[in-house]
C-alpha cells in the first residue's frame, strides 16, 4: 500500500494536564454556552428566563495553561474576563439522555472565556458570527483537569474572579440556568460529542475590561484557582 506523506508536519493536538497523573487529556472541540447565569444575562441586556441554551465554539489551540501569560489581542480596545466552569468529556455520543449525561464527564477545570467585547458587540449588532470576539489566540486560559472520580460532580460552590486583587465576578454554580447534564444532553442533539470535548459552562455577572499588566485571578470551590497576567 502506498504510504502518503503530509505536505508539512501537522500541528500537535492541544492537551490539558490532569492533576495527579502524567497522562494528558487530548482536546477535541471547545463548546461554550452563552448567558448561563441569570445575573450575567441581565447584565448583557437579556431576559434570564430559560430560553433554549445557545453555543459558540473556540478552537482547541486557544487553550493556555493557568500561570501562563495572556497576550493582549490585536484589533481591540475592550478585552473582558469571563470566569467559567470547564467540563471535560471522555465519552461521546448523540442524543445523550440527561439522566446519563454525567457518565460522559471525565473531570472539571476552571477556565476564562476571554472576549474581545467590542468585536463581539459589533458582530451582535450586525447579526454576524462571534469568532472574532471569542476564538482568538490564547482566549481560553484553563487550569489542569481534576477527575470527577476525585471531586464528584460539583453542582454548587462559589465561582469568582478578581483583577489585581479587586473582586469583579462572584457567583455560585447553583445559579447556572442550564445544569451540566442538561448542557451535555442538549449539545449532543446538535453535534456528535467526542471524547476530548470541553464545555465552558457560562459566567456570572461582573465581567469587565482588563489592560496590559493586569493580573486575573479566579477560582471555583473545590476545583482550584486560575491565574494569568495580561501582557
What does it look like?
Pfam families: FAA_hydrolase. Residues 30-231 form the Fumarylacetoacetase-like C-terminal domain. GO terms for molecular function: acetylpyruvate hydrolase activity; metal ion binding. This is Fumarylpyruvate hydrolase. Keywords: Hydrolase, Metal-binding, Pyruvate. The protein is of the alpha+beta class and 231 residues long. It has one domain: Alpha-Beta Complex (Fumarylacetoacetate hydrolase, domain 2). The chain is 15% helix and 32% strand. The protein contains five helices and 17 strands. The chain has helices at residues 38-43, 117-126, 131-134, 148-151, 180-190, and strands at 15-17, 24-26, 30-33, 55-58, 63-65, 79-81, 83-89, 105-112, 115-116, 140-142, 146-147, 158-163, 166-172, 198-200, 208-210, 215-220, 224-229. Strands 4-3-14-7-8-11 form a six-stranded mixed β-sheet. A hairpin with a 2-residue loop joins strand 12 (158-163) and strand 13 (166-172). It is globular and about 60 Å long. It starts with 14 loop residues before the first strand and ends with a strand. The mean pLDDT is 95.
Provide a compact summary of the structure.
With 231 residues, the chain is of the alpha+beta class. It has 5 helices and 17 strands.
| CATH level 1 class label | Alpha Beta
Name the poorly predicted regions: none
CATH fold call = Fumarylacetoacetate hydrolase, domain 2
Rounded mean pLDDT is 95
Biggest β-sheet: strands ordered side by side in the sheet: 4-3-14-7-8-11
* Order of helix and strand elements from N to C terminus: EEEHEEEEEEHHEEHEEHEEEE
Give the overall shape, derived from the CA principal axes.
Answer: globular
> In the CATH classification, which architecture applies?
Alpha-Beta Complex
Helix- and strand-based class? alpha+beta
